[in-house]
Write a structure and sequence with these properties.
binds magnesium ion, about 350 residues, Transferase(Phosphotransferase), domain 1, 11 strands, binds adenosine-5'-diphosphate, single chain, alpha+beta, about 40% helix, three-stranded antiparallel sheet, five-stranded antiparallel sheet, globular
Length: about 350
């Protein structure tokens, strides 16, 4: 563990000073680091020896170079890439904020408005990358970072670079070695089937899975073990999202289910098509819900409690200590456990009840 860190640091000294390691479900090891020249924070991702062993480093570097040329407001750029000894690494800016994954933890579904703005940012990023010949191949909440009121997509082209730079190991054919790597829960049917030519429309499938999860709290087939999950992506239709979330705007449900079509030809064919569909959504009812909540908070005429869209207002610890609230309405809401809590707002202002 520490050996890899020391080895990496010795190659990077003078350029980057490694700091804490980030944990993630990913294939690489990730360190926060400081750019010694510019003093800015970056992340350094390095392939561990077991993965690097099966990689043609030159090919990997070539693929990463493609991704490094993507400059877009919603894409985390690759700043530099190289090999530390045998281990390919690449450097990206550190994004201050949280990942969509951590935003989703404990959620049973995000509000529609928030979901749509994140999806719009992600679709813009995909559209730009696709028009430059780069497919993502690992679109998932872990690779969407939320910062400064916008969403940025990271790890563009990494999965593809890993897949296409793999060399056959003992007993493996080159086709098996070239099978795309990705994350089973978000894999398109063609990716799951090992199609090395999975194109931009494969990203739209994963985008659909992610959208499904954002709104319902769970991706399709979430309760299956990995093998049957992969089979389900290939052969089984996911439950229509409107059955899980009857209040979803029908056009949004239709868009998400179209992204989840098994046949790439039945999905949206371009990010532009997705963006147009998102722009055409009638979200007036959703906006109404948000306004009701914020108006309630602003006017201060309401106590802790719950609202129709699943928002809960909670008093801050300070207010509780000063006995500026009555626990009764909130307790009665929380005990009605059949209702779903979507969002919890901690109120720091006093209000009278
Ligand atoms: N550029 C970045 N800035 C800040 N955090 C990042 C950045 N890239 C990745 N992370 C975080 O580092 C962790 C590991 O990332 P990664 O290896 O890509 O794994 P995965 O995306 O599969 O979870 C994740 O929690 C991710 O949110
Ligand atoms: Mg990642």
């Amino acid at each position: 563990m520490t050996e890899l860190r020391e080895e990496l640091q010795s190659y990077l000294s003078g350029s980057y000073e490694l700091g804490r390691e980030l944990t993630g479900g990913g294939m690489s090891r990730v360190f926060v680091a400081e750019d010694s020249v510019l003093g800015r924070r970056v992340v350094v991702k390095v392939l561990p020896p077991n993965l690097a062993a099966g990689i043609n480093a030159e090919r990997f570097r070539r693929e990463i170079t493609l991704a490094a040329n993507l400059q877009h407001a919603h894409i985390v750029p690759v700043l530099t890439a190289g090999t530390a000894g045998e281990l390919p690494y690449f450097v990206m800016p550190f994004v201050e904020g949280e990942s969509l994954r951590s935003r989703l933890i404990g959620e049973q579904g995000m509000p529609v408005i928030e979901t749509v703005w994140i999806l719009r940012d992600v679709a813009r990023a995909l559209g730009f990358a696709h028009s430059h010949g780069v497919v993502h191949r690992d679109v998932k909440p872990d690779n969407v970072l939320l910062a400064g009121g916008s969403a940025v997509v990271t790890d563009f082209g990494i999965a593809k670079a890993l897949a296409s730079s793999r060399v056959a190991g003992p007993g493996e054919t080159l086709t098996q070695a070239g099978t795309s790597l990705g994350t089973p829960a978000y894999m398109s049917p063609e990716q799951a089937a090992g199609d090395p030519n999975a194109d931009a429309r494969s990203d739209f499938y994963s985008f659909g899975v992610m959208a499904y999860e954002m709104l319902t709290g769970r991706p399709p087939f979430y309760d299956r073990p990995t093998h049957s999950l992969v089979m389900a992506h290939i052969a089984e239709l996911p439950e229509p999202i409107e059955l899980q979330l009857p209040s979803i705007p029908p056009q949004l449900a239709a868009l998400i289910m179209r992204c989840l079509a098994k046949n790439p030809g039945d999905r949206p064919q371009s990010a532009r098509e997705i963006l147009d569909a998102l722009d055409d959504l009638d979200l007036s009812a959703e906006r109404g819900k948000q306004r009701t909540d914020s108006a309630a908070i602003r006017s201060g005429d309401t106590g802790p409690g719950a609202y129709a869209d699943g928002t809960v207002l909670m008093p801050s610890a300070k207010l509780v200590a000063r006995k500026r609230w009555s626990p009764a309405p909130l307790q009665s809401f929380l005990s009605a456990s059949h209702r779903r809590i979507r969002r919890c707002i901690i109120c720091v202002r006093e209000w009278s009840i």
